[in-house]
Every structure is written in C-alpha cells, then in structure tokens.
User: Fold this.
Amino acid sequence: MKQKRLEKISDTVSRGASRSSALARLNGFWEVFSKDDNVLVVINADPDALASAMAVKRLLRYRVQNVTIGYPNEIRRLNNLEMVKRLKIPIERLHTLKISDYSKKVLLDSQPPHLPCFEKVSFDAIIDHHPVTVQWDARFIDIRPDYGAVSSMMVEYLRAANIKPSVALATALFYGIKVDTQNFEKNALPADGSSFRYLFSLANLNLVRKLELTDLRRSELKYFKIALNELKVRKGKAFVHVGRVWSPDILVILADFLNHVDQFSWVIVSGIHGERLVVIFRCDGYRKNAGAFAQKTFGKYGVAGGHKQAARAEVPVKNLELPENQEVTTQTLIRLATRHEK
Ligand SMILES: [Mn+2]
Assistant:
C-alpha cells in the first residue's frame, strides 16, 4: 500500500508544473467526484488551508451536491479569525458534523498522521505540501513537499480548470501563499512565485494588509501599558514580564514591538499561560543566537529553542523552583535569564 502511494506521489512530483500535468491532476481530482456527492473538506484552519478549502469548493461547485468545510482546531489567531470573517468563509467545527453524512472526504494542507481526528477518517483525496508520511492511502493524492503553499498548487488547479478566482478567493490564496512562505523568505519554488504573481492583479491588497495587521484584541492593549511600566533594561537587554495572558501571541507582539527600539540588542518578554511560563526572545541574530540563548537559560526547565534572531521557551512554572508563594516577576525573569552570566 505504501509503495503504491509513494509511486503515485513521485509520479505527481516528477510530472512537474507544466500546463498538461496541471490538467492531468485536475482531471484526476475531478474523477473522484460525482454529481450526487456530499463532500466534506477537512482542514486544520490556517490561512493556506482555508484558502485551499475555498478553492476546492470552487473547483467542485457544479460537480457535486455540496461542499462543507470542517476544521477541528479552535481558531485563536486573530489574523485567521479576521480572514474567516472578512472573506465570509463558510466553515464548521468538525465535531459538530457527522462524517457518515458525507460521501466523499478531502484533506487539504495536511496528512492523516498529523492529527488523531484525521486518522479516523478515510479520505478520497489528499492534497498537501508537507513531507510525505506513511500508513495511509487515498484514491487521489497530490503531495508536493517542495511547494511553499498548497494555495500555489490550488492556483494551478484553478488555472487548468479555466476558472478565474473571485476577489475573495484570490485574496485568500494570495494571503495563504504569503503566510506559508513568510513573504518568500523561506521554502518556496518558482511555481509559488508564478501563482503569487497570477493572483497579484486579482487579490485585494488592502484587505491582505488588514488581515496581516490584525493580531491584537482590543482587550490586549492593556499589556502594552503593563509592558511599558514593567520594562527593565540590563546591558542592552530589555526585560518584561506581563503576568497572566490569555494567549501567548500577545508576548510575541510585545517582543516584536520592543525590538523596534534602537538601544535594545535583546528583547526578552514573558508571561504566564496556563501552568507555563512562556518566554519570547528577540535579538539581531548577527553575532547573537537567540535559540542558543533560550536553550542555555531555560532548556533545563522545559522546552526552549529557536532561530538566531527569534526564540521561545515554554516551561512549567513549577519547574522553576521558586520559593513558596513567590510569583514570577520581571525580576525573576532577569534572574533566570542572566543566571549563567555569573
Ligand atoms: Mn500550508
């Protein structure tokens, strides 16, 4: 089973990105479905997956009874919530749907072993760009691990089908490619670039900008006040502990904000999320290494690591061995992060 699937995959990979192979893939995909199908598209709802689900819904519009998009994860990222809201993407939580109501199931931007709830479903078609996993099969498989985004692949399907995407669909796909390739700063192919360029004149760039900007809840503005009050600087390192947070994302926003300041060569921001202390590190990543620093300072308490210019640590508060009833403060953060200097 595995061998057959790998052959299918290498077949799709080796066929390259020419128009004829895009058409062959499109027809292969379309062949899975018939007029009376009720289709369930399953995604882990991030921008690339959401955009791809919209594209599949469009590809199947006149070919099946209906297409429902289901997702298991609670969407917490505001950019993603904003995308769903502003582009009016019709999605439903997977646990509220009865899988047996659907005659065909499609998995996008993911593979069954990625989540236990995906593993339980037997999929008819799987389209993804993550590294190939084993122990599953589907009638139609298109996995291209070298692609930066499934959205780029979906553009090829749409173009092969001669479907010009609506502004909403083009905007979603454009944003999906931008997010997954981190604005082409990482793993992308010329094929991603060509899909991106195709979408450029069809997408609404103002809306893309708004989706990118929206990462703050109004209720989280208070953390800026706390951060500015708490800010302590030691030898060019800026330290802030903001206390309990509803989502660690605000810590990333605060760290990135403080990283704008000229005199700080390091920014270290922490907060408590659940039972964990989450620490976000930023530096210039030139002669410094945030990942190594995070590992050195917090590695022994929990998970810590990252890249040269950005890193993160998540450690159970109980592992910090604080004196009884002592809360984590900015002082605690400074002590933990400079302990090795002594
Ligand atoms: Mn993706």
